[in-house]
Amino acid sequence: MLCRAKVNLTLHVGAPIVSGRWSGYHPVESLVVFANFGDDIVFAPDSESSLTICGPFGAGLTAGPDNLITKALRACDAPPQSVRLTKRLPVSSGLGGGSTNAAAVLRVFDPGQRVDDVSLGADIPVCRLSKTSLMEGIGEVVSAVPHLGSMSAVLVNPGVPVNTGDIFRAYDSTHPPVVPHKTARQGSLLERALSGTNDLEAPAIAAAPVIGAVLTILRAQPECNLARMSGSGGTCFGLFSSDDAATRAADVLSQRGWWAVATRLGEPS
């Protein structure tokens, strides 16, 4: 089963919530799309549960009880499974890799949606749907946005770790608005993406300047319509006018020693 990479085309973040169930969390508003590239997960019934992790980025993960796949299996009260995860997405990269893995578990073993998705992580609800969506609240409010098609894109990760907590704390020091800004509700997928920003991009660049270098090079590539960071970093994306242009750009970025892959974001028309 393909665990499609999550990309935040826009990410608007409000000030931390001060009371109630979500105290300490940040309200968000984000136009989210999914790639036709990601991790791969296979389930097989077994006498005992086990998790094997392989793939280009498998060494960055442990298969212990804190792994999101294991947590999701427990939350679903799933029968014992032998699980094999091929990790093709960089770890802690802003692409929702762990969340997409857990969401795959929920789609298979919790079809009735008994599990409180957000209890496993704020990105889990949108990753369970795994379609072009508007994400609001702290992530628990997800609205599918159909019929927007797909776009040629490049995903680039420079391999520099970015600490999500540090990025949010730096953002909070800028006195963010109580209510997040809004992405346009009309227009094409590209027009909606262009209408917004990623509010965490500036503090992420301050923490890891190489992110700014990635964005500068992406923007300089022919037919690049938009370059932006996804999530809290450090993966960036470029939206291109054609698959060929995206492939050429991925080649240029990979020559710098960065992880880069050409893909399509969104849903087939």
TrEMBL record:
Pathway: Isoprenoid biosynthesis; isopentenyl diphosphate biosynthesis via DXP pathway; isopentenyl diphosphate from 1-deoxy-D-xylulose 5-phosphate: step 3/6. SUPFAM superfamilies: GHMP Kinase, C-terminal domain, Ribosomal protein S5 domain 2-like. It is an enzyme of class 2 (transferase). The active site is at K6, D123. NCBIfam families: PRK14608.1. PANTHER family: 4-DIPHOSPHOCYTIDYL-2-C-METHYL-D-ERYTHRITOL KINASE, CHLOROPLASTIC. HAMAP family: IspE. This is 4-diphosphocytidyl-2-C-methyl-D-erythritol kinase. The gene is ispE.
